[in-house]
Amino acid sequence: MNAITDRFAYLHEAKTPVGAEGWERMYPYFLTTQPEGRESEDARFWFADSMHWSRAVHPFDSIGAEAVYYGCGINGARSIVLPAALGLDVRMVNGFVYICPQAVTDPAEVERRLALFQERAGHYYKNWDSLYDNWKKKMTDVVQRMNSLQFAPLPELEPIEVVLEGRGRSVSWDLVENYHQLVDDFFLVWQYHFEMLGLGYGAYLVFFGLCKKAFPEIQDQTIARMVAGVEGMAFRPDDELRKLAKLAVELKLGAPIVDGGSAADILDNVSKLPGAERWLAAFEEARYPWFNYFAEYGFLHDQETWNGNLSIPLLAIGRYIQRLNKGEVIDRPVEQLHEDRDEIVAEYRALLAPDEALAFDEALALSRNVFPYIEEHNIYVEHWSHAVFWEKIRDLANVFTQAGFFREAGDFYYLNRFEIDQALFDLVESWAIGVPARGVRHWQHEIASRRKIMAALRSETAAPAYGTPPDEVTDPFAIMNYGVTTERVQEWLNQARGGGTGRLQGIGASPGVVEGVVRVIRHEDEISHLQAGEILVAAITAPSWASAFSVVAGVVTDIGGLMSHAAIVCREYGMPAVVSTGFATAQLKTGQRVRIDGYKGTVEPLSV
């Protein structure tokens, strides 16, 4: 594999977009490629985490890349000790997040780690329910702690209580301490996130491997459908929208919701109709906690929650009302999923010998038991905890702005978390002394420069991969969540060589064959543009896009595996889907007609 056609471009060969020169200085050094590590980086394979960061990342928002892969490494490599995989290394390239699976290739080391994994994972599998209950309590506690942190504007003088109570401690120090506490808790949240996730994927991979060995011709998604029909809180936000749509139809309040407009106007128009009080009370009851839900994944400060922009859930409710008015059933087809699931299980189980059937039953039971966590953890982490985190960060940004340190609150995000720590001390020390903060002038020119850099970075899409492809992808997160398999990497490489035919090959994530017109979605704000019967094409779809599936005919993504949120949601809603195509958002154009095959994992452009 010495020829350039046998590899992707190296990290240091990535072309910087015009106007983005010097982008590297915006991020901590350990997130960017460095000359001293070039040889090692070139020998490895890096793929874009466009699942969580679908566009270039502001300097402060890179905190997510730090926290996520620190937590992933701790649990996979050091805690549960995955036998054939360590952590996922991380780099920023042109503002995008790229990750690199660290494989364990020495058979003796794999064997040693396997024994450790069996002991540690075995404890979790045997005590899954109680440990999961404890996990939810830990997550609830940390979210509440983050929510209790206050970032108040600096007063002219210390409150009199500081003197009368002999505190000897400035209220300005609360800003510094609370910032550190907020950052610490954000990192803690991501350690919790991965505590059980690898085990969830691991249980499914065991079942997957058993099925592949027993039934060599079985399709990957057929195995996935054996654990379909997820119950629990993962689909609760969308269920709340459906309930509100049904109630609006029952009370004959649907017209102003369907007509649209601003959220304030819609709610005001509803309030003027008979029966509105009951519906508005139900709407308010649903908001907390279920509307603390990001329209995308919540890794960027400029992503909105439903509560932050009520137009998002109201649009979805309006879509459901329109379907109800047409006499359609809007409930998730859980019973049908269960029937299909049980039929598939019975069909394949009947082919097994008694001892094989017992192993099959045990592996399937474990997969189904741990499977809800794979979706539910997303509610606690990416939505509830991230919603609080960004709310508190906005409060802190406003403190800087009110003190005259930044011209506007948005300036805050052009500094990374370490630079904010310096700026924060500059702010409180200058306030304490009674002199202007030096950062006002120090950062003014740099922020203006970084604004231009970010605009240039965000004008581009992420290349799917860099570096040298591995002989085999073994990391369970890469395979199950991102859809980065040995076969997919080779397909991406073929596309990068220019060997593609226009036909995209991905992973068949949800069954069905459908033709339609493409709608490329690059930002969650564009969801409202979707028209009935279109094929939604995106880097990845978020769980919160479920209501959009009420109008589209199919889904295609750049990235995502069989256990990605996009794949699971599509299966649960009976929506044909192809994931992990690598190049869909780059090659397909809005208005283009395609055929997607959710069985074969293909996307075929059609002549008009």
Give an overview in words.
There is one protein chain. Helix 4 (128-148) packs antiparallel against helix 6, helix 6 (172-195) packs antiparallel against helix 15 and helix 6 runs antiparallel to helix 16. The chain starts with 37 loop residues before the first helix and ends with a strand. Helix content is 50%, strand content 10%. It is built from 21 helices and 12 strands. It has an 8-stranded mixed sheet with strand order 5-12-11-7-8-9-10-6, covered by helices on one side. Strands 2-3-1-4 form a 4-stranded antiparallel sheet.
- Overall pLDDT metric: 91
Structure class: alpha+beta
Helix content: 40-55%
Outline type: globular
The total count of helices amounts to: 21
In whole angstroms, how far apart are the ends? 40 Å
- Domains counted in the coordinates: how many? 4
Strands, count: 12
Strand content: 5-15%
Largest sheet, if any? 8 strands, mixed
Order of strands in the sheet with the most strands? Answer: 5-12-11-7-8-9-10-6
Task: Pick out its properties.
kinase; single chain; alpha+beta; PEP_Utilizing_Enz; Phosphohistidine_dom_sf; pyruvate; four-stranded antiparallel β-sheet; 608 residues; Pyruvate,water dikinase; eight-stranded mixed β-sheet
Topology:
Layout: H1 38-42, E1 45-48, H2 63-79, E2 85-93, E3 96-103, H3 107-126, H4 128-148, H5 160-164, H6 172-195, H7 197-214, H8 220-225, H9 236-250, H10 254-259, H11 263-271, H12 276-290, H13 311-325, H14 334-349, H15 354-402, H16 417-433, H17 439-457, E4 465-467, H18 476-480, H19 486-496, E5 504-505, E6 507-510, E7 513-521, E8 535-538, E9 554-557, H20 565-572, E10 577-579, H21 584-587, E11 593-597, E12 602-605
